[in-house]
Design brief:
The chain has 566 residues and is mainly β. The chain is built from four helices and 48 strands.
Length: 566
């Protein structure tokens, strides 16, 4: 059954004729009743035609229709632009791992363009549509859903919160720069330069990285705006910045700038299962990437996190591209392209909490320790946990959670069954939820143009990193860490195979296994690591560095020398 909601007609009625609007809504309600009866048998398709102007409410209405219809529902868009506005977005507070501290962002409210909550068996088929965000906002949320697919879409921004500047010329006291569209700028009343977006501005305080076009490499650097005395608009796209002494920049260099607060994310998959993202172009992801949090069986197939090659932009993301925190089941990332991040393209991990109090009946108070991760429930009754020595990262006890009570955004009181360690000896240790640890497959992907690492992975589940290409990654292309004293990202690897990957002109070593233990610790943290059949092109030895691990098999890897890679 196909139903097309005539949003344009509805809005026209709303403004001009209350009677017609009322009749249209009656007709719509009758159709929804029919959908509810037939959808379980035949499935429902809801067509959302292109909308002139702000499409946020039209898409929300389509999701509401899917919720009422039940059964298998496909929301189908047209090959057109659908504009999403922060001003008309749904709002909901969400605490999201690895984003912003309460000091950085006191209000965790997210401004959500496409909000799927409590839905099952729903597909959003973009059919080539483009979602264009306006203002800092969260493009989509999948919350408490099952069997959800998003596919055949492009996601971009009318005002990307990582604007770019290309150096056109320089002398001893001035720099001329060209602003890359679609970013806009203004000269303030006191004569200074700043970028202007929908509800935000950015100037000297920006965090920066520089892109070298001849090498397709980005590195973090000082902002070229910092310290400028005045600015003069040369044209709609060019500006001259004046300094006491001009920074050491060179024509052709491209500077990407941002503020440091991850107050929104591109996508958030929360407490959901069997979610699939397929054939999606993420041309800009602000102000973070896609976060999967306490979700199960997530698939990313043929996604392209990279700027539109025809746009002139070189950056596609404010920070990480894909962050999986406390998930389980299978995380599968395949046949995808990651190019132009401002941080790690993929990071898969759990979270260590610290025990700050305990009693003699299995009760303990645990606390989030990193300021950018807090507020969400880290356990459920029935979850298995391990107690971890924060310095050695060795498991010293295990138990099952029987009761959980929230104290505040940072602390929880849990009761655990089966603890053997005396209560007084628990304080200071860390605790990891091992029920929520995924298996992982990362295969057939391409990684380039990031200033940090390629893949971070810490999970007990069986994991495979195979058939990927890493191009000029300036830090470890694959990093296996585990820590309970800094980022508090858990936990140990137990079965990881890294095979048949191609590392091209990357930093050496490209594969690093290094748990963050005290310097005098000798016990292995990780185990079951196989590194086999990989190619290291135009790189120095050693390509592999492994410490703090047992049962390691490194063999049949190749060093190759070629002409300059392009």
């Amino acid at each position: 059954m196909v139903y097309e909601f005539d949003w344009v007609k509805f809005m026209t009625c709303h403004h001009s004729c209350p009677i017609n609007r009322f009749l249209h809504m009656i007709r719509y309600s009758l159709v929804l009743m029919a959908l509810a009866v037939t959808s379980a048998l035949s499935g429902v398709t809801i067509d959302v035609p292109a909308v002139s102007g702000d499409a946020t409410l039209a898409l929300r209405q389509a999701v509401d229709s899917a919720n009422r219809a039940g059964g298998d529902v496909t929301i189908r868009l047209e090959r057109a632009d659908y504009h999403l506005s922060r001003n008309s977005a749904a709002t909901r507070p969400y605490h999201i791992s690895n984003t912003a501290s309460a000091e950085e962002n006191p209000d965790p409210t997210k401004h959500i363009g496409l909000w799927l909550r409590g839905l099952s068996n729903v597909t959003i088929d973009g059919c080539g549509a483009t979602l264009v965000t306006h203002g800092e906002m969260t493009t989509f949320v999948v919350d408490s859903c099952s069997d959800v697919t998003l596919k055949n879409l492009t996601v971009t921004s009318a005002d990307p919160s990582v604007p770019e500047l290309t150096v056109v010329g320089r002398d001893s006291v001035s720099v001329t720069m060209r602003v890359t569209p679609p970013s806009q700028f203004e000269i303030t009343p006191d004569g200074r330069f700043q970028f202007v977006g929908h509800g935000w501005t950015l100037s000297d305080e920006a965090i920066a990285q520089v892109f070298y076009p001849d090498r397709n490499v980005t590195l973090r650097c000082e902002s070229p705006l910092r310290g400028h005395d005045s600015a003069c608009r040369i044209s709609d796209s060019e500006v001259m910045l004046r300094f006491n002494r001009a920074p050491d920049v060179k024509p052709g260099e491209v500077y990407q700038l941002r503020h440091g607060v991850r107050n929104e994310v591109c996508g958030f998959i929360n407490r959901s299962r069997d979610v699939r993202l397929e054939n999606i172009n993420f041309q800009f992801m602000g102000n973070f990437g896609i976060v999967g949090q306490y979700s199960e069986n997530l698939t990313y197939d043929s996604i392209r996190c990279m700027p539109d090659p025809s746009s002139g932009r070189t950056n596609a993301g404010f920070a990480d591209f894909v962050q999986m925190s406390g998930c389980r089941g299978m995380i599968r990332i395949a046949n995808s392209h990651f190019e132009g991040a401002q941080d790690d393209p993929i990071n898969i991990h759990g979270t260590h909490l610290q025990i700050v109090d305990s009693d003699n009946v299995g009760g303990m108070t645990v606390k989030f320790m990193h300021p950018q991760t807090f507020g969400f429930s880290p356990f459920e009754p029935g979850d298995s946990i391990v107690i971890v020595d924060r310095h050695t990262l060795q498991a010293v006890d295990c138990a099952k959670v029987t009761h959980l009570a929230r104290i505040d955004d940072y602390s929880f009181r849990i009761v655990a069954d089966g603890l053997r360690i005396p209560a007084g000896e628990l304080i200071g240790h860390a605790v990891e939820n091992i029920t929520w640890t995924p298996q992982v497959e990362i295969t057939g992907n391409y990684f380039a143009r990031t200033p940090t690492r390629g893949i971070l992975i810490t999970t007990r589940g069986k994991s495979l990193i195979a058939g990927n290409t890493f191009f000029r990654i300036p830090m470890a292309s694959v990093l296996v860490s585990d820590d309970a004293r800094s980022w508090y990202e858990s936990g140990p690897v137990r079965d990881l195979t890294i095979r048949d990957n191609r590392f091209v002109e990357c930093a050496s070593p490209a594969i690093v296994v290094k748990p963050e233990t005290s310097c005098d610790v000798t016990e292995p943290v990780h185990s079951g690591i196989v590194v086999v059949g990989n190619s290291f092109v135009n790189m120095e030895s050693p390509a592999v560095s492994i410490s703090g691990a047992a049962d390691v098999d490194v063999r049949d890897n190749r060093y190759q020398r070629t002409d300059a890679w392009r």
